[in-house]
Amino acid sequence: LYSFIIHNKDTFFNNATRSRIVHHILQRVKYEEGKNKIGLNRLLSNGSYEAAFPLHEGSYRSKNSIRTHGAENHRHLLYECWASWGVWYKYQPLDLVRRYFGEKIGLYFAWLGWYTGMLFPAAFIGLFVFLYGVTTLNHCQVSKEVCQATDIIMCPICDKYCPFMRLSDSCVYAKVTHLFDNGATVFFAVFMAVWATVFLEFWKRRRAVIAYDWDLIDWEEEEEEIRPQFEAKYSKKERMNPISGKPEPYQAFADKCSRLIVSASGIFFMICVVIAAVFGIVIYRVVTVSTFAAFKWALIRNNSQVATTGTAVCINFCIIMLLNVLYEKVALFLTNLEQPRTESEWENSFTLKMFLFQFVNLNSSTFYIAFFLGRFTGHPGAYLRLINRWRLEECHPSGCLIDLCMQMGIIMVLKQTWNNFMELGYPLIQNWWTRRKLRQEYGTQRKTSFPQWEKDYNLQPMNAYGLFDEYLEMIGFTTIFVAAFPLAPLLALLNNIIEIRLDAYKFVTQWRRPLASRAKDIGIWYGILEGIGILSVITNAFVIAVTSDFIPRLVYAYKYGPCAGQGEAGQKCMVGYVNASLSVFLVSDFENRSEPTSNGSEFSGSPLKYCRYRDYRDPPHSPVPYGYTLQFWHVLAARLAFIIVFEHLVFCIKHLISYLIPDLPKDLRDRMRREKYLIQEMMYEAELERLQKERKERKKNGKSYHNEWP
């Protein structure tokens, strides 16, 4: 106690720290004679107690205004200054959050606030790219040519029931594609890759400041207690702990390896389940495009491909939600099967599995649309088929990017809406139902006189996986496919602004008070964010090179267009691009099962002889009919070159930024050095004072020594 200046012992520790101290004691109290009869957790697991939780500090509401009468307690103050929807534009009171909920939850909200603030420039640039597409729409030569191509007849996009169509019918989709796929897209992809690195580097600096202010710089996690499950499983085999010198349960290496192999096999199997679900969605798409093409409603019949994509995305979202429930149970089973030694090992293992499952589940269909849709379809007269039956789906005549935009837009909106409902709507309904039952059982007057522990018991407990769901919800599409959907950062920003107050409201009003715990950083999630940053560079390089038409347009402008050899690539150089990107097919070369029911006489009064399709192939009467042209190989080489150059350039910029930005701000480093200097000075002065005092006492007692130090 002599190391601290304590004016009042009752208020020296905040309530979060006091709760942690009490919980630490309760975890180590022996409640019965026996080797393992220790701790509150065992009493909870065997059903002796229903729940154990810290109490909230009274009600979060007050009859009196906080401005005139002040806050009645910290919970009331948090509600008025943080969890209320009316303060959405204000900074978060992080010190108060930390004092009430502990450092771990305080760091989550600090990270969420920092992430939200960093999204402002990304959202602004993304909106600028979109508005740039809007303003240049009327000057885009490619969309102009598509809209004016009334004499170009496209081949059917499915077997039999899909009709021939004019290229000009896809005018709207060509214009929408230009909004997302324009000259600023590459710049935006590079910007977002750099932004992800800057975000993480500056978060490290921000975390260091918070850790210093919250006295976490020198804090190290103490030796964790062994999980009761691990102790019960391996209690017969013990070895000496090298730190404490006490015997503890020990898991043999062979047993650990076998469990990890079984766990990895389970993960691989669940990933195969995801791939099977995606395969089912692919079959649905190739089957229903023909069904919608023969639909009796003209609106659906004329937009069969968009209807197919829209319904497939909605079905995919339902499958994602159902599989998430299954994944949670499987991840829990596999993590328990591994028998992690400590709680932090268990949490890291479970987090990694759930993130991997949910990432694959959420993004597998998006990866299919981005990189496989329309890539391996063959050509009219020689289509590649699934199980030699279903013809693989083709891209829309205006390109594949519109499908990717629809996939991302619908999934993002539906996912955010569903998550927000489950976070707030579900607990609200549960708490309302509990209050209703209490009113019926005890009446309104009796209910208001409940002690605080009973009021809190009727609230919802925090989920068993801590902050896992909160972090997972924030990590999504923001950078992975941002080149295809520049509005993703804006949607993420709007979602985060809502999410901060939603989480705050939930923690303060709808959940029992969670047990406070200390932490120095956001744990394994930092590594996950770094991994996503690296993956986003690769995916965006492939989206620009493979999914969008950026590279084919560039190759045409410099090599085949009106400006070939002049080193220019403006809109005037794109004249004739649409015609050059379409190949010619002889209608009589259709396979029997692919031949459309209509002969195309509605376009010119006589049966069509030729139709066009998206590819770079020779005409039917050339020496090698439907062989790849030289332009195809130029485009392919340019795509590969772009991917290599883009990735190396962006990774170099990322590493350079990482190197240039120090982990600690200069003022914080100076403050830490100043603090260390003052501590040394105080220790020196205290030691000097002690020595001088001893010297005076010796002189007083008549004792003196020669050659004494002063």
TrEMBL record:
GO molecular function: intracellularly calcium-gated chloride channel activity; protein dimerization activity
PANTHER family xrefs: ANOCTAMIN, ANOCTAMIN-4
Cellular-component GO terms for this entry: plasma membrane
Membrane topology: Multi-pass membrane protein
Domain Anoctamin transmembrane intervals: 97-675
Family: Belongs to the anoctamin family.
Transmembrane segments: 108-134, 184-203, 260-286, 306-327, 355-376, 471-494, 522-546
Organism from which the protein derives: Phoenicopterus ruber ruber
Coiled coil: 674-708
Pfam families per UniProt: Anoct_dimer, Anoctamin
Localization: Cell membrane; Membrane
Source organism phylogeny: Eukaryota, Metazoa, Chordata, Craniata, Vertebrata
Protein's name in the database: Anoctamin
Annotated keywords: Cell membrane, Coiled coil, Glycoprotein, Membrane, Transmembrane, Transmembrane helix
Domain Anoctamin dimerisation: 2-94
